[in-house]
Design brief:
Elements: E1 8-10, H1 13-16, H2 23-29, E2 33-36, H3 46-55, E3 65-68, E4 73-75, H4 81-105, E5 114-121, E6 153-160, E7 166-173, H5 174-181, H6 198-213, H7 224-238, H8 240-244, E8 249-254, E9 259-263, E10 267-273, E11 277-284, H9 296-304
Parallel strand pairs: 1-2
Antiparallel strand pairs: 2-9, 3-4, 3-5, 5-11, 6-9, 6-11, 7-8, 7-10
Bound molecules: fe (ii) ion.
Length: 318
């Protein structure tokens, strides 16, 4: 099996005005990265950017500072109340703006989607000294960050707020990655792969009850689907051979003050360098796909049924 190189598609300001219906979503469904050299929305003000860059780093407690819109919570920061309030306000405003922008650009993906997080990264990604499964500089598919996705997809809108490029190294899309490395990642080729165990079901019920009182505990929920995706994530990051093999690898440079959009659970990706960025995340129901055959859920279903995990050839635009 060949590991494919994820494609990057440039969406210039001119192109945005003449897009065909489904043009952007058809690219995203195929695991492609959409690059916006000109931001398709208003960025935070210069004053706010200076504040985030200069005043928040000393207060970071985790990899990101994140705002959770559904719970109205800010996490990953321990700062005086005025700093926390201003940070929350900027992250919230930007999440609202990204949401409005995506309603305009990819309306077919938005019914019943969930606004997940608005995150800020202010540290250099290169050599951050994080544990292996938390590192962003190793190629991976995202998995299990927001509790049980149960087949919903992780859509990320990223903004490079720095004065230098943010550099990604990408390799593979979910179907060829599962087809090639599923067994090595420990994924069983039987229907048990996507069937929730009793423990999953009982645990999920408890977590959902608990999360009504403590919203942050929602991230503890897991399903068989999420565990399978987590196995892929961990295998990719922990396999030296996978990381070193250049087949299907491409480096993509995102210019200062540019944006990009991708399903982070469909395109293998890592961040080699870059310092100051915002990452806005939305969970998209797989039922919103024009062609669900491309979704990781369907990829894993084919794999579990002993068939090829690869998606059927569907001409672009159909
Ligand atoms: Fe990621």
């Amino acid at each position: 099996m060949t590991v494919k190189t994820p494609e990057a598609i440039e969406v210039t300001a001119d192109k945005i005005n003449v897009l065909k219906p489904y043009e952007l979503t058809d690219h995203l469904e195929r695991g492609r990265v959409l690059m916006f050299p000109t931001p398709p929305l208003e960025l935070p003000s210069e004053d706010d950017l200076r504040f985030l860059k200069e005043q928040t780093p000393e207060y970071h407690t985790t990899k990101n500072i994140s705002y959770y819109p559904r719970a109205g919570l800010l996490r990953g920061i321990k700062a005086p109340p005025d700093v926390e309030q201003r940070t929350l306000g900027i992250l919230k405003d930007y999440q609202d703006r990204v949401e409005a922008c995506l309603h305009r650009l990819i309306p077919s993906f938005t019914p019943d989607w969930r606004s997940a997080t608005s995150s800020l990264r202010v540290f250099e990604e290169n050599n951050r000294g994080l544990p292996i499964r938390t590192r962003s500089d190793l190629i991976h598919l995202d998995a299990g960050t927001y509790g049980a996705a149960r087949g919903d997809l992780i859509l990320r809108f990223l903004t490079n707020l720095d004065d230098k490029d943010r550099v990604w190294r990408c390799k593979g899309t979910v179907s060829d990655l599962v087809e090639t490395f599923g067994e090595a990642a420990g994924l069983a080729r039987n229907e048990g792969l996507l069937r929730d165990s009793l423990l999953n079901r009982v645990g999920s019920g408890l977590v959902r009850g608990l999360s009504k009182v403590f919203p942050a505990t929602a991230t503890l929920e897991r399903s068989a689907y999420d565990q399978a995706m987590r196995h892929m994530h961990n295998y990719m990051k922990e396999s030296e051979e996978f990381q070193q093999d250049p087949e299907g690898v491409v480096e993509i440079c995102f210019k200062p003050r540019s944006c990009w959009l991708v399903f982070a659970d469909m395109a293998g990706h890592s961040c080699l360098s870059g310092e100051f960025a915002m990452i806005n995340t939305f969970m998209v129901p797989r039922g919103n796909f024009r062609h669900q055959e491309f979704s990781p859920w369907e990829v894993l279903s084919r794999y579990a049924a002993g068939k090829s995990a690869l998606a059927p050839e569907i001409p672009f635009g159909m």
